[in-house]
Amino acid sequence: MLNSILESPLFRIVNPQSIAFFGASNRFTSMGTNQLSSLKSLGFEGKIYPIHPKEKQVLELKAYLSVLDLPEVPDLAVMVLPTRVVPQVMAECGQRGIKNAIVVSGGFKEVGGEGPALERKLLAAAEKFGIRFLGPNCLGVANPHHKFNVTFLPFEGRPGFIGMASQSGSFITQMFDYLRRFKLGFSTGISVGNEADVDLVDALEYLAVCPHTSVIALYIETIRRGPAFIELARSIVRHKPIVAYYAGGSEAGKRASFSHTGALAGADALYDGVFRQSGVIRAHSIPELFDFCWVLGACTRPQGNRVIIQTHSGGPGAAAADACSRVGLDLPPLSEKTLAKLAPLVPHTGSLNNPVDLTFSKNPMDFFAAIPDVLLSEAGADGLLVYFLTPTQIVRRNMESMGISEDEMPELIDKLFGDQAASVADLLGKHQKPLIGFTFQSPDNPFIQKLLDHGIAVLPSPERAARAMAALVGYSRLVNRLSTPASP
Amino acid sequence: MLNSILESPLFRIVNPQSIAFFGASNRFTSMGTNQLSSLKSLGFEGKIYPIHPKEKQVLELKAYLSVLDLPEVPDLAVMVLPTRVVPQVMAECGQRGIKNAIVVSGGFKEVGGEGPALERKLLAAAEKFGIRFLGPNCLGVANPHHKFNVTFLPFEGRPGFIGMASQSGSFITQMFDYLRRFKLGFSTGISVGNEADVDLVDALEYLAVCPHTSVIALYIETIRRGPAFIELARSIVRHKPIVAYYAGGSEAGKRASFSHTGALAGADALYDGVFRQSGVIRAHSIPELFDFCWVLGACTRPQGNRVIIQTHSGGPGAAAADACSRVGLDLPPLSEKTLAKLAPLVPHTGSLNNPVDLTFSKNPMDFFAAIPDVLLSEAGADGLLVYFLTPTQIVRRNMESMGISEDEMPELIDKLFGDQAASVADLLGKHQKPLIGFTFQSPDNPFIQKLLDHGIAVLPSPERAARAMAALVGYSRLVNRLSTPASP
Questions:
Q1: What is the pLDDT, as a whole number, of residue A336?
Q2: Residue A270 in this model has a pLDDT that exceeds 90
Q3: Most CB atoms closer than 10 Å: which of A46, A197, A336, A382?
Q4: Is pLDDT at A430 greater than 90 in this prediction?
Q5: Residue A7 phi/psi, 5° resolution?
Q6: Residues B194, B133 contacting (CB under 8 angstroms)
Q7: Are strands B47-51 and A148-149 parallel, antiparallel or unpaired?
Q8: Are A172 and A164 in contact (CB under 8 A)?
Q9: B156 and A221: CB-CB below 8 Å?
Q10: Considering Cα of B162, then B168, then B173, then B174, what sign does the dihedral take?
Q11: pLDDT tens-digit readout, A34-92
């Protein structure tokens, strides 16, 4: 673990104040132009110096013929250039005194042929001048807290709490929109590419001390420094959770071309062991990676695995109970005290077993206030799963029949949904227990939007909510185990 | 199997020409009013006779004091009434000559106490007059092809090809919106409730011969007539696939209140055996239930399990390859012939292994035309998984730089996306192989919308696409096995 984020070789790469940008022009068919456009559109507040052999201006910025002409030494060089010129440009950056770079260009080790030799040449040029760099063959970095996004796609979400290091640039850029839909976002996303210099372990080390990052996501195809990874991860997970998705199938895809040796299974088990040893939580898909990060970053840690399910629809409650059983969550019966408190709130058609199925609410607001309040107070339970469904059409029908006009409705519905969500959010502050919602509605649904605005995790199915709760329970147990001194 | 759909006890319940409606008023706080409103808003073309003790008009329809006063004998009675009056009303319907009913009212067997006795009384009243009925404690039926929806929620999607029978009404009504987002819909959705008379097996029998249903979805908490279910399902799956989700956890939820006897595992294994014996495909979540129904209804059946993955992003390709390996799909290498045809289409940074990773396309349209055409022609493969990502922002940036004005863009983008999707759809007709898309974008994304408009299945993650392809392969094998005569 670093004592200070300033010690990380990534610090200036992720937080530059000034940038020399190679490979952008005014043509949007070039990748570099798109990357510079992303940087500009997020409102980067530092200086940007495009370097271009012909253009006087690039995307309305004054362009320079050579890095040697720049009026200052920039913190960072970004290169989106043809493969063959990259080592030479790296050397020129070194001559100008630049100490950090991102090499987006591909065509190095990953393509074979002359690629590996070119990559060695690139590394030698950097080492000669003491330059630390990300890539080659990466998609760059997004640090929205610093208004810095040098990737191919514009960052349109909100800065968030998920710090990600990825061996696929796609899982940085293509997740901007995915996370935005859930009102989540990256604190920092780092595409490590070929890891010729700075690698996944360096990125992990950076994210461990990044103050905006409360949970770390990793996309892994291979770990090049196994022992260092394990040692570092073990020290991090005591205070910050790490979730990893390992694409074992990447190997399968490559090997499928040659033979069916069963090597995949071995590799998969090996990585499973690495994650277990280092306290890293393993996710089995990209959506699950972000589900786990979401609840680990947003929810209170539970003291155990006893969960109550609150629903007003039998099927979703049953599906949630089934999913809980399958991931090792217990569904305890409610205590006499809780049953007595619930009785006046639940109609006779409802069920006070766990799942607590209201069928319908005597007073609809109870579903968001009195009932979850009682359930979160249950001493025999550690967390609550709540099924959220508020069909806008039914609310509209009710309002129509009350004589409310079409014009008045949007504001009233907005207020109603806002009040319901605020009521749930208040309970999170009151009870130190996790509450995870689940729904089949789109995250764009106006009611779900309000819950997300309040930072409530609402997952898109009972199974995903149950698995996320289990991940939270697992992390909680890990932290308790690590913080308990071994018995003498 | 029925010889004619007219023989089904559900035929008039699902396709009524005239309806006596009990329990609707002009107050939208009552469930019955909402259900009648749903029926009206879908534009039901038959006659509706509200029965109400006081109102002259209900939702602008002439109301009748008693079913005995009706000017004709309606095909169907729908009851959303207080529990205690239901048996008596059923008898009155019988006196008037009505032969079919849907009993929405709850408070019968499912609540214990006097409930079971009331349910027996209800059944006796129906039997006395030869009435067949759905429920009690159900949410009714939606048959959008007949503009008939008597459930709590309005049907706003499109009529589709998924016929569903469900022991939870929620998984009919609350899926209207879920399916609509993917441009899917129910052919018919039947909530069977307590199954006092018509049951899940009857519903299965109906859906087997329903001409709008190309795949059957079941939500099961318990099967009351096991041998009949198995025999019927076996005869159906030869020509129409059945997918089931079993909520074993419902039992877990109930039993959690008493003890942890491990009975769940037994029950789960039992149902697994029932599904296997009867050729029913088991889904492990509600989203998976509909994923499987989607591809089974929309895609050509593959001749084997050899799949090619087409991507332009390494990570999503690797994740898809990993997911394929885990569900028993093979990723064969491409033949020399295919490699020769692809070579001019793929840049040097790309990979011609399987996954086929274009990194970027020399000509973007190739991704939707020439390349999948070549891959679907590969004799050594049975199906294609395609990663779909078309970031609207990049398309906009390109257009902007070409001097296209903001005003012109929406139409041009719409045309571009439409052409790309149409090109993919053309290939489906040309090659008799399944193509399943996957994406992390929202189904609301304008490009994904175009693909969905063309009936292309685009699933929300590589894992879900791989599992759906595996279900398709499994069903194809089942049909081949069943249609091969046993050797002498």
A1: 96
A2: no
A3: A382
A4: yes
A5: -75, -15
A6: no
A7: unpaired
A8: yes
A9: no
A10: negative
A11: 999 999 999 999 999 999 999 999 999 999 999 999 999 999 999 999 999 999 999 99
Write down the pTM of the prediction.
0.95
Distance CA A234, CA A245 (A): 17
CB contact under 8 A, A252 and B174: no
Token pair belonging to A403: 């004589």
Q: Is the dihedral of CA A134, A170, B466, B308 positive or negative?
A: negative
Lookup: tokens for B77: 């009675």
What percent of chain B stands above pLDDT 90? 79
Beta bridge partners of A100: A132
Q: State the pairing for strand pair A435-438/A458-459.
A: parallel
Amino acid at B117: A
User: In chain A, what percentage of residues exceed pLDDT 90?
Assistant: 79
First and final C-alpha spacing in chain B:
27
Place of tokens 């456009």: A37
pLDDT tens readout for residues B228-285: 999 999 999 999 999 999 987 555 544 433 332 333 344 788 888 999 999 999 999 9
Show residues of chain B in contact with A326, CB under 8 Å.
249
Instruction: Compute the distance between CA of residue B476 and CA of residue B230 in angstroms, rounded to an integer.
Output: 19
Q: Do B440 and A394 touch (CB under 8 A)?
A: no
Interstrand relation of A61-62 and B458-459 (parallel, antiparallel or unpaired): unpaired
- Report A:351-370 residues touching B (Cβ under 8 A): 353-355, 359-360
Cα separation of B303 and A329, whole Å?
41
Question: Is the per-residue pLDDT at A395 higher than 70?
Answer: yes
Q: Where in B45-202 does DSSP place strands (E)?
A: 47-51, 57-58, 61-62, 76-79, 100-103, 132-134, 141-143, 148-149, 162-166, 186-191
- When pLDDT is cut at 50, 70 and 90, the band that residue B488 belongs to is low
DSSP E strands in B323-382: the ranges are 356-357
Helices marked H in A347-445: 370-377, 392-401, 409-430
Q: Is B219 on the interface with A (CB under 8 A)?
A: yes
Min CA distance, A485 vs chain B (Å)? 33
Between the alpha carbon of residue A140 and those of residues A39, A64, B361, the distances in Å are 11, 22, 20
**CA distance linking residue B330 with residue B324, whole number of Å:** 7
- pLDDT at residue A351, as a whole number: 82
Cβ(B314)–Cβ(A170) below 8 Å: yes
- What is d(CA B36, CA B13) in angstroms, rounded to the nearest whole number? 15
Q: Under a CB-based contact definition with an 8 Å cutoff, are residues A166 and A138 in contact?
A: no
Say which DSSP state B78 is in. Answer: E
Spatial contact of A305 and A471, defined as CB atoms under 8 Å apart = no
Show Cβ contacts of residue B442 under 8 Å, excluding neighbours closer than 6 positions: A177, A181, A442, A444, B448
- The single-letter code of the amino acid at B140 is G
pLDDT at A250 > cutoff 60: no
Per-residue model confidence as pLDDT tens digits over B438-462: 999 999 999 999 999 999 999 999 9
Q: Which residues of B touch A461 (CB under 8 A)?
A: 285-287
* Residue-level length of chain B: 488
What letter represents residue B432's amino acid?
A: Q
Q: ipTM of the assembly?
A: 0.93
- H/E stretch holding B209 reads helix B200-209
Residues 6+ apart with CB under 8 A from A392: A413, A445, A446, A447
Task: Tell me if B472 sits within 8 A of B434, measured CB to CB.
Answer: yes
Structure tokens at A49: 């110096």
What number of other Cβ atoms are within 10 A of residue B281's Cβ?
23
Q: Is A309 exposed, middle or buried (0-12, 13-18, 19+ CB in 10 A)?
A: buried
Give the type of residue at A236.
Answer: I
| Rounded Cα–Cα distance for residues B188 and B144 (Å) | 7
Q: Where are the alpha helices (DSSP H) in B357-461?
A: 370-377, 392-401, 409-430, 446-453
Chain A interface disruption, residue of B137, B170, B448, most A CBs within 10 A: B170
CB contact under 8 A, B316 and A174: yes
